[in-house]
């Protein structure tokens, strides 16, 4: 059975899968005036799937008024330049990831890890340079659907952010936490600083929300805060492996 091109999670917020059923996700926030804020743009090959997702919502790239990236990795920023071109929308990235976004390269993986040092030597890993029009900062509240709060959760990348939509009580974790097969902290070799990833993930347990949306994996629509807090208590508080 074909996967739906877009799924409404709460009123006005849609998940658009760009790989598989939910292996890699983008999100669309529809404002009262009909404009769309797009969160993450998938791989370089993702724009057609995102455009199809918008069409399923009755929207077009011309309705996109802003693009927000949770971080500057190829599976999140890869399609951003093309979607910015199609929509004319400005792209917003946390200030600490802006240098990577505009150069079209991911931050170096954690060099304290053997796997990170190995991955850093591999070719590739780039994406089309992103024309950043807005620098995001921690606790900034974007004028999106009544307020979209930027929550800095660095470690997966220097400027990684999660996003809290307080009006609908929905949290987008970005890559701070994955939900592919099971809940998990971002894999160590994929982080620029794995120990920081574990520390900053605690912020997500301190926020107030009901539903949790992941950029990798399906959402939790009920009791999300309790599920995440229990996960963090048994996982993140454990001693970080050397």
Overview of this structure, please?
Pfam families: Lactamase_B. InterPro entries: Metallo-B-lactamas, NDM-1-like, RibonucZ/Hydroxyglut_hydro. Residues 23-216 form the Metallo-beta-lactamase domain. This is Putative metallo-beta-lactamase superfamily protein. The protein is of the alpha/beta class. It has one domain (7-103, 110-235): 4-Layer Sandwich (Metallo-beta-lactamase, Chain A). The chain is built from 8 helices and 14 strands. The protein has a 7-stranded mixed sheet. A 5-stranded mixed sheet has the order 8-9-10-11-14, covered by helices on one side. The radius of gyration is 17 Å and the shape is globular. The termini are far apart. Mean pLDDT is 92; it is low at 115-123.
What is the strand and helix layout of this fold?
Elements: E1 7-10, E2 13-19, E3 24-30, E4 36-39, H1 47-56, E5 64-68, H2 74-77, H3 80-87, E6 91-94, H4 98-103, H5 114-121, E7 132-136, E8 141-142, E9 148-152, E10 161-165, E11 170-172, E12 177-180, E13 182-185, H6 194-200, H7 202-206, E14 211-213, H8 224-235
Parallel strand pairs: 4-5, 5-6, 6-7, 11-14
Antiparallel strand pairs: 1-2, 2-3, 3-4, 8-9, 9-10, 10-11, 12-13
Condensed summary:
With 242 residues, the chain is an alpha/beta fold. It has helices at 47-56, 74-77, 80-87, 98-103, 114-121, 194-200, 202-206, 224-235; strands spanning 7-10, 13-19, 24-30, 36-39, 64-68, 91-94, 132-136, 141-142, 148-152, 161-165, 170-172, 177-180, 182-185, 211-213.
